[in-house]
Amino acid sequence: MSENNIPGTTLPYSEQGGMFAMFIPLIKATDGLTLSQVCAITGLEASTIQNWVKRGFVAHPVQKKYHERQLARILLISSLRDSMRLESIGELMALINGSADDESDDIISEERLYDYFCEIIGRCNISALSVDEIPSLVEEVVSDYTSTAENAGERLKSALTVMVYAHTAAQFKQRAEKLFKEMKA
To answer: pLDDT at position 73, please?
Structure first.
């Protein structure tokens, strides 16, 4: 995954509005995305996405179509899989929104969670980033979040902080591997 791509996709990054908003017209126009379309957006293999559905990390497609909630979850998992174990990502998502197949236990929509994540990543300057700055940035980005669920705000902030640390670690790992490869050439 390139640092110039939208997290979890092969699409170029743009700072215009919420990142997930760019997918909504496509999903609405086609009444959901096919597996091959999701694969084209994410760069993932179909078997990978099907495995995530089978293991309960992503809600089952409806009539073989993936909608906003499922795509956002796939993008989040894809963004984190370079730096976290899949089981840990699944646990993290469950801590935020419970079961992938049950929206009633969600403290935030998957789409909004993805937008928060993208906004934080977009605002991080990796070259000048300090570990201590990430929680403050998370706090600032989610300042508009409100929920009636107990501790939902703190859970959301903690989860986003974990997600940003993991994503940042993956970015540093990519940079290190690139530099190492250049040294050997």
So the answer is: 97
